[in-house]
């Protein structure tokens, strides 16, 4: 059906605007982290928020306050989980994937690449997107928990110990061990 009545259009206009404003206020109240650069967990929350907002706006069967309650519960749960992540590294490790070292000192870390389903072409693309012209200029490439690639340039070796300490496959130089060796496929 193309058109039912003006009352339905008016309801959608008013309820959508009020629900949108409520969502903005809730996001502001619960902080920037609520919709920060997204991990899989954050993506699920964002999709659910969109679904709830659409349901509030378009479903005549959803009572407005019930919809707002659903938004509060979802954002509140996300806030609590983020708070637990800050307080407990173990809990954070369960919720958020750890970053993974994929390339170190010119060596592709094949086992890590296989487990993350990343190809050499993906890594080279990440290097080019950062504006680097050569793999020789790159100390390390890390697949971050949000799915993005980060590169550390050569000459930043002193910084790499500090910035790579929470990255899977990285071993500190002073531990006399190299990171996972590259194997041929």
From TrEMBL:
Protein's UniProt keywords contain Ligase = no
Q: Does the keyword Transmembrane helix apply?
A: yes
Entry's transmembrane regions? 6-27, 39-58, 64-86
Q: Which residues form the YetF C-terminal domain?
A: 87-156
Q: Which UniProt keywords apply?
A: Cell membrane, Membrane, Transmembrane, Transmembrane helix
Q: Where is the signal peptide?
A: none
Database matches in Pfam families: DUF421, YetF_N
**What residues does the YetF-like N-terminal transmembrane domain cover?**
17-81
Where is this protein primarily located?
Answer: membrane
InterPro entries xrefs? DUF421, UPF0702_alpha/beta_dom_sf, YetF_N
Where in or outside the cell it occurs: the entry states: Cell membrane
Q: Please tell me one Gene Ontology term that the record gives under cellular component.
A: plasma membrane
Q: How does it sit in the membrane?
A: Multi-pass membrane protein
Instruction: State the PANTHER family in the record.
Output: UPF0702 TRANSMEMBRANE PROTEIN YCAP
Q: Which family does it belong to?
A: Belongs to the UPF0702 family.
Q: What is this protein called?
A: DUF421 domain-containing protein
Provide the species name: Nitrosococcus wardiae
